[in-house]
């Protein structure tokens, strides 16, 4: 059973890794990679022409995980191949874990539909803009598309400012406010207990835990009033009831 101490040891090793080992998206000679994979399947007598549309070389790569959409590698022959194709990707891209993902559940926690197909780790690790992030692959959604906003927030000058981060999640924006924008304090609100656990780990990992108060629960009830110089929340329809 994995303990908090075990997780801490793994996370602390991230500081010893060079930044160029962490990336959000990755491609590597797609035509050659695809040809080599087809060659391996052909050697096993399992390759069929109809499987070609089932192959993708486009995926999301983090330090220790590759994420591939669930609508690829679904032909029955891939199952007959066992772990051959997953082992191929793991060795080629130097990652120990591979997961397939679908759409985010339309629930209040926005739970990811993700399953592990290779490896045995649960915590994804990533470094972006000199900030370390980690989260459980099937418990917490990570939105790679908000990188521009993460970087924009990190470029702000929030010295001496108090920030309330509604729907803080694993710390997408809480961490840039603290690490780069130098906010005096952040109140981080979220309902998802798994996201809160990841946030605690990430605050410790980036050595800013003393500057953040975590408020776990319904944001409408936990969000502090009259404290913020900045309020961070999503400008999407599902967040409209929180705007006031």
From TrEMBL:
PROSITE patterns: SAM_MT_TRM5_TYW2. Residues 59-244 form the SAM-dependent methyltransferase TRM5/TYW2-type domain. One of its GO terms (cellular component) is cytoplasm. Gene3D superfamilies: Vaccinia Virus protein VP39 (3.40.50.150). GO terms for molecular function: tRNA 4-demethylwyosine alpha-amino-alpha-carboxypropyltransferase activity; tRNA methyltransferase activity. It holds the Pfam family TRM5-TYW2_MTfase. GO terms for biological process: tRNA methylation; wybutosine biosynthetic process. Its EC number is 2.5.1.114. CDD domains: AdoMet_MTases. Keywords: S-adenosyl-L-methionine, Transferase, tRNA processing. Pathway: tRNA modification; wybutosine-tRNA(Phe) biosynthesis. SUPFAM superfamilies: S-adenosyl-L-methionine-dependent methyltransferases. It catalyses: 4-demethylwyosine(37) in tRNA(Phe) + S-adenosyl-L-methionine = 4-demethyl-7-[(3S)-3-amino-3-carboxypropyl]wyosine(37) in tRNA(Phe) + S-methyl-5'-thioadenosine + H(+). InterPro entries: MeTrfase_TRM5/TYW2, SAM-dependent_MTases_sf, TRM5-TYW2-like_MTfase. This is tRNA(Phe) (4-demethylwyosine(37)-C(7)) aminocarboxypropyltransferase. The lineage of its organism: Eukaryota, Metazoa, Ecdysozoa, Arthropoda, Hexapoda.
